[in-house]
Design a protein that fits this description.
- The longest helix has 13 residues.
- The chain is globular and about 45 Å long.
- It has a single domain, classed as SMI1/KNR4-like (3-Layer(aba) Sandwich), CATH 3.40.1580.10.
- The strands form two sheets. It has a seven-stranded antiparallel beta sheet, sandwiched between helices. The protein has a two-stranded antiparallel ribbon with strand order 2-3.
- The protein has three helices and nine strands.
- It is about 25% helix and about 25% strand.
- It has about 120 residues and is of the alpha+beta class.
- A hairpin with a 2-residue loop joins β2 and β3.
């Protein structure tokens, strides 16, 4: 599922342990140390994972809108965002950020493109 996605260069700095009081899970930090973000087609959507260097600023911009224990790690290049919970779950964050509309889609970054596709296929039904 990562076949049509371009990866960034590896992250060479010190990986933060947390962003806005959300501990970054080990699968995410390992992925980001190797790729430090990416962009491409998942099949049913577009995926942009923001570089580590941008996460704090991006999350500071959304801190008043997001429920506690949630951060933004990427987007679909349009209105939807990709988030991460304090429990290490990946989720879709719609344009209108309200907790009731946040949709958990998975719990492992390796499956993120497939989880995104499954989410959009379910929404199209």
């Amino acid at each position: 599922m990562w076949t049509d996605i371009s990866f960034n260069e590896p992250f060479e700095g010190t990986m933060p342990d947390m962003i806005n009081n959300v501990t970054l899970p080990s699968d995410y930090t390992s992925f980001m140390q190797t790729h430090n973000g990416c962009e491409g087609d998942t099949g049913a959507s577009w995926l942009v994972l923001y570089p580590i260097e941008e996460l704090q600023e991006i999350n500071d911009d959304f801190s008043e809108d997001l429920p506690e224990g949630h951060i933004i790690i990427g987007s679909n290049g349009g209105g939807e965002l990709i988030g991460l919970t304090a429990d290490g779950e990946y989720l879709i964050v719609p344009e209108i950020i309200e907790e009731e509309y946040l949709e958990i889609i998975g719990d492992n970054i390796e499956n993120l493109p497939a989880d995104i596709n499954n989410y959009w296929e379910k929404m199209d039904q």
